[in-house]
Write a structure and sequence with these properties.
Number of strands: 4
Order of helices and strands: HHHHHHHHHEEHHHHEHE
Number of helices: 14
Strand order of the largest sheet: 1-2
Length: 325
């Protein structure tokens, strides 16, 4: 099989992009979130799985290229859960996060929402997030359903509480004009969603702080379980969850504030929702891969800052852990 710039020699279970650089991680996650994989037929999926099995058995059909193998692995990773081997429901795949999540974000950004609308869209958003989290969970060590429910109710409560509380304060602010109140109201979803998303990941993964997570060396041999690495992983996840909603929930209100002043939208008010939907979807498609590319999924940690018992087990100066998504 010949090597090309875009398709290097195939490595099973590895990324074809350099995960030590932001650009490489961005290209990797653009691949992972590619919505075109949602249209993969059953025959195409079965063919991809069979091709990867043939690779493992060192019995590839004649004419198989590196591109064929990378594309087969992309399809498998987009549809099949790596631990359970089962298909992930389409709305809860990473590749379906933008197509199925965008209508919800549009609902969150509706102008001048009623209290009932605000509560409904915050609840629906956190429900969708919870289903995505559960469907893409690490299932090597099964987590009790109660922990996911705990995280879900914590996220919904914080999202609704912050959104309703801020909206109430804005409406009671007598020193703000109605026009300013309307503009400020558009930005309420961001702190609510950012806080809820961070709360969700901390509540669902706080057991890792007490139990630790596995760390391994370059040869992928598990060295031990570290609480220090767990704390670092949780911090990285929290930062990612705080940043992810920013472009999605801040760019559309800013853009729409200017668009609403144009003569076109004043003459065609019915175009407000379609334009808002397009701006939101583009912002979502841009924000998701950028946010999850900030930190490597497999991150590194220096041996010297780990627990003493782990330091005694290895002489490697740099160890690794899977922080999750």
């Amino acid at each position: 099989m010949e090597k090309t710039d875009d398709y290097p020699p195939f490595q099973l279970g590895k990324s074809r992009f350099d995960q030590s650089t932001f650009q490489g991680r961005l290209r990797h996650f653009l691949d992972i979130t590619d919505p075109r994989t949602l249209f993969t037929s059953r025959d195409k999926l079965n063919h991809s799985l069979e091709l990867l099995d043939q690779y493992k058995a060192n019995h590839l059909p004649n004419g198989t290229t590196n591109r064929d193998l990378w594309e087969a692995q992309k399809i498998k990773q987009a549809i099949i859960h790596p631990d359970t081997g089962e298909k992930i429901y389409m709305p809860f795949r990473m590749s379906g996060f933008v197509p199925f999540g965008s209508p919800i974000v549009v609902g969150l950004l509706l102008p001048n929402p009623t209290m009932k609308q605000m509560i409904f869209w915050q609840w629906l958003n956190q429900s969708h997030n919870a289903c995505v989290n559960y469907s893409n969970r690490n299932a090597t060590k099964e987590t009790p359903m109660t922990r996911f429910l705990f995280g879900y109710f914590g996220a919904v409560s914080s999202a609704v509480g912050i959104a309703v509380g801020l909206s109430f304060l804005i409406r009671r602010a007598n020193n703000l004009s109605p026009a300013v109140k309307l503009i400020v109201q558009k930005f309420v979803p961001f702190p609510a969603v950012a806080t809820a998303s961070t709360c969700n990941v901390i509540l669902m993964r706080n057991n890792e702080l007490y139990e630790g997570i596995e760390i391994f060396n370059k040869a992928e041999k598990v060295v031990g379980t570290s609480k220090v690495a767990a704390k670092k992983a949780l911090k990285e996840m929290a930062v990612t969850r705080m940043i992810l909603p920013a472009p999605i929930l801040l760019i559309p209100p800013i853009v729409m504030t200017f668009v609403e002043r144009t003569n076109f939208l004043r003459r065609n008010p019915r175009m407000h929702l379609p334009i808002n939907a397009v701006v939101t979807t583009l912002s979502f498609a841009f924000a998701l891969p950028v946010a999850i590319s900030l930190f490597p999924q497999v991150s590194s940690v220096r041996r010297e800052i780990l627990e003493e018992e782990i330091q005694k087990k290895t002489k490697d100066e740099l160890l690794f852990y899977n922080k999750g998504l």
